[in-house]
Each structure stands twice: as C-alpha cells, then as structure tokens.
Amino acid sequence: MTATTERPETTLDPDLLVDGSMLIGGEWVPSSGGETIDVVNPATVQVLARVPRGNAADVDAAVRAAEQAFPAWRDLDATSRGRLLFRWADLIEQHGTALDQLESQEVGRPSWGPPPMAGQLRFIAGQADKVQGLSLPTYSPDQLGLTLREPYGVVGAIIPWNAPGPMFATEVGAAIAAGNTIVIKPAEDAPLTPLALAKLALEAGIPPGVVNVVTGYGGEAGAAIPAHPSIRRMGFTGSPQTGSLIMKACADNLVPLHLELGGKSPQVVFPDADLDAAVPAMVMGITLNTGQICAAGSRVVCLRSVHDELVDRLAAQMQRVRVGAWHEPVNMGPLISERQHQRVLGYIDLGREAGAEVVTGGGVPAGYDTGYFVEPTLFDNVAPDMRIAQEEIFGPVLSVIAVDDEAEAIEVANGTEYGLVASVWTNDVGTAVRMSRRLQAGQVAVNSPLGAGVIGGPFGGYKHSGFGRTMGADSVLEWTQVKTVSMRAAVPPVPRTRTPEDD
Ligand code: ADP
Q1: Which positions ≥6 away from 500 have C-beta within 8 Å?
Q2: CA–CA separation, 207 vs 210, rounded Å?
Q3: Is a pLDDT exceeding 60 seen at residue 6?
Q4: Cα of 43 to ligand 1 centre, how many Å?
Q5: Is the pLDDT of residue 494 over 70?
Q6: By C-alpha distance, which of 125, 104, 106, 99 is closest to 198?
C-alpha cells in the first residue's frame, strides 16, 4: 500500500477552525450552560479545540431560529436554492486540503486526498430544481389533479464521528435542497469538520437559520432533537442501539425518520476471482479509516478451494499496512477513542476465546502506548455464529469463514442481522448476476469493496442496517412530503330557465 507523506503534527487552518462556539440562527454562540467538550486528536491525545456542550435549551433556540428562517427558504425558487448549494460546494472544493487535514486530525486517519464532499453536494444541488409532482386524472373535465412535493419545515439530523464531513454535507445538503431548515448535531468526538462546513455554508450565502449546528453529547443535545415538538422529520446515522432510541423518541413525537446503522458486510470470494486485484482491495476495505466505516467488508466468505491461498495473501497484505499518526507516512491511523479501543481489543479477545485463529495482528502495535492504535487483525477458522462474525466491531478486524458451495456462501453472507453492503469477487458473470440478486444488502459491489464509485448511488440498509436512502437523487425526495391538490374551475353560473313572463 502506498503510504501518505510526512507533515506537521498539528495543522489547523484558522479560517476553518471554529473553537468554542456553535451555529444558531447565523450566530456563533456558546452553550447556554457555558460548558465545553475537548476535541482530541486520537493519535496524540492532544486537544485540538473545544466545542460547546449544548443542551435542550440550545436545541430549542436552534429550532426557533430554523422556524424563523423556514418560510423565506421554502419560498425561494428552487433554481436559486440549488445555486447556493453549488456555491457551497465550490467553497468546499477551494478549501479541500484544509478540510481534509481537519477531518484527518479529529478522526485520526491518514489523509485521503481531496474529500468527496464537493462532488456529493453538487449531485444533490442538481436535484433541488428536480423535485417534481404528478398530474393526475380526474372525474370531471373541469378539474385538475396534482401532487406537490413540499418540505417538512424544521428537520433534525444526528451524525456520527467516522466520516463527519461527508455525513454533514449529504444530510444537510439533501434536507435544505428540498426547502427544509435543519438543526444538526455532530458527534462529540468529531464536530470540527461539520462546524467548518457550516461556516462555509454561511459564506456561500445560505441564509442564517437555514443550517443550525448544536454540538454536545448524545444523551443531552442529541436526545433533545427528536423529542422537540417542532421537529417534523429526522435523519440518523450511527449505531443500531442509538438508532433504536432515536426511533422510540420519534415514535413518541410522531416524527418520520430514516436510519443508517451498522453493517457486517460480507466479501464473498469465488475460486475464479482475480486475487491480485481482490486482496489489496479487501484489505483496504477493512483498514480504511481503521475499519471505522459502516460499509467495511469485515467478513470474508470464501469457497474452500481458494481458502488457503487467500488467507496467506490477506495476511501478507495486512502486514504491509503501516500504522501511525496522521502526520506520519502511514496507511492506517488509530481508533477514535479509548472506548472504541477497549471495544475492538475486547472483540479480539472474544474471537480467540471462541476458538478462532489469529493469523496476523491481534493487539496493540509495538511502540504505540499513546493513542488508540490497534493492529490490522486477521482471524481464520471463524464459525458463522461466533460473535466476531455476527457483531459490528468497527475496527480493522477481518474474519475468514470457509464454505462448500454457492448456496452456503449465500446463507452465510446473509446470516447476520445486518444488510448494508455485500461484495462478490468473481470473473463469472452468471455468479455475479445470481449473487447480486440473492444477497440481502442495500448495496452489492461486484469486484470492488465498500460499494463505492457509483455517482448518485442511493446508500442505506436492509434489515437492522436501517431504512431510507441517503446520497442518491431520492435522498432529496425523502425530505419532502406529498400534497394532493384537487382544483376545480370556478363553477359557471347556471343559466336561468326561461319562464312565460320572459316572453
Ligand atoms: P458510537 O457508539 O459509535 O459513538 P452512536 O450511535 O452512539 O455511535 O453515536 C452517533 C451519534 O448519535 C453521535 O452524534 C452521538 O452523540 C449521538 N447519540 C448518542 N446517544 C444518543 C441519544 N441517546 N440520543 C440522541 N443522540 C445520541
């Protein structure tokens, strides 16, 4: 794997860094309680900045600001709304390097190069003026039937820390493209990129109050959003446990929502697969962002005849992954926090105890006592029902499960509660077609990991991986509600019947 080059330990662009405040109604404000939360670089554990510890009162202020901004934003013509989103995307592109550096430092990953946000946002901006209704048949020639797609009003979103920039741009972009105004809470571990993006949104001319960012903890600021009586729709991306809590809060408040939750994505490898291409891609798929990607391909389901060669090659490739802090020439950074570190190391212990074999990795890399580092880890002889094969680990841990035939491959691949992404590695078009139909996942990728590379591909899950789709053209429609309009021509005056007196 090509490692990124060395750079200074901390590089924060003062134009983009928001330290100590959040955005409500176009103003940069502290929390009403005055408290802050430290945001640390997980490689060095150094504090990068502080953000307000927002609470229910701050959420209420943000909702009121969004309510005030809503009528004008709703009534702005769709072309102008789209143009403002395009301008926002241009600013994101202009600041691409600084945004990449900021996200790298707060998430703790090596640089990915220009972030995907500008392109994702442009795709969504292009949908703003394509929100269309229908014309419907009616019983009378004097009547028209129409559907209008209208924004909900003030909507809410809660996003996680693993890819804060793209999550923010796609959730906010789709919601406001449809004419809603939004209150969004980034994760407490990685709120700086969202705040920087919000700053650029204001600079692009998106009016104050259209985008409001309340920082803080999930149980405080987060819980207050779906429970607020004026929130009309929610979007949530995060863990299934928190997703379930959000859904309960939405049920109490009768608020519709979409959920993008976890995954346990299978990588199904057939004997005719091109292993030269597949192995580096599979290892990239589980080490990118240190495995902290909901789409990470964390289970290898391989036909027995290819098993031994595949395991040897995966292990060799994993050993080539250089681990370190974002500013060093490395491929993989630390995990985000002490909590995630304990969790991933705990799963590695669980795998060993259950009888799976650690082929490579399996602990903290030598010399990394500071920061939350863990080795890329390959488990072989994994049984499909082991916890490491069923539960989302959210770390660079890959489990290999051998199967006898295609039918068993499908059964094992589909045999978890999740259904986010599934990959198939084969050169046989028949196998590719059958697997694409039979795999229970919101995205199926043939000969690629993670399901990436499709422009405007809807993203979301089957089963416990969630419902609703982000990123695609439909993501804008998800933030609209449908109104049927029945319109009668003014009833013409009924002609008076002639009477004998008229003659
Ligand atoms: P993780 O465990 O990986 O941090 P979570 O699902 O807990 O994932 O977090 C995703 C987002 O949900 C974060 O912004 C977090 O602050 C928020 N969150 C956590 N708990 C709650 C909650 N009870 N109500 C609302 N939001 C929450």
Answers
A1: none
A2: 6
A3: no
A4: 22
A5: no
A6: 99
**Residue 440, helix vs strand vs coil:** coil
Among protein residues, the one with the nearest Cα to ligand 1's atom 2 is: 239
Give the pLDDT confidence score for residue 5 in this predicted structure.
Answer: 44
How far is Cα 140 from Cα 143, in angstroms, rounded to an integer? 5
Model pLDDT for residues 476-493, shown as the tens digit of each residue: 999 999 999 999 988 766
Q: Give the rounded distance of the alpha carbon of 136 from its chain centre.
A: 36
CA 163 to chain centre: 7
| Cβ pair 430, 272 in contact under 8 A | no
294 in catalytic set: yes
pTM over 0.90: yes
**Rounded-to-integer distance, Cα 365 and Cα 43, Å:** 13
Burial (Cβ within 10 Å: 0-12, 13-18, ≥19) of residue 93: middle
Q: Is the CB of 215 under 6 A from ligand 1?
A: no
The span from the CA of 192 to the CA of 17, in Å, is: 7
Q: Cβ(103) to ligand 1 under 6 A? A: no
Q: Hey, what domains does the chain have and what are their CATH numbers?
A: 10-261+465-485 (3.40.605.10), 266-446 (3.40.309.10)
Distance 56 CA to ligand 1 centre (A): 15
Q: What is the pLDDT of residue 493?
A: 60
Beta strands in 107-263 (DSSP E): 135-136, 143-151, 154-158, 181-185, 211-213, 233-237, 257-260
43 phi and psi angles, rounded to 5 deg: -85, -35
- pLDDT value, residue 503: 66
Would you place residue 498 in the very low, low, confident or very high pLDDT band (cuts 50, 70, 90)? confident
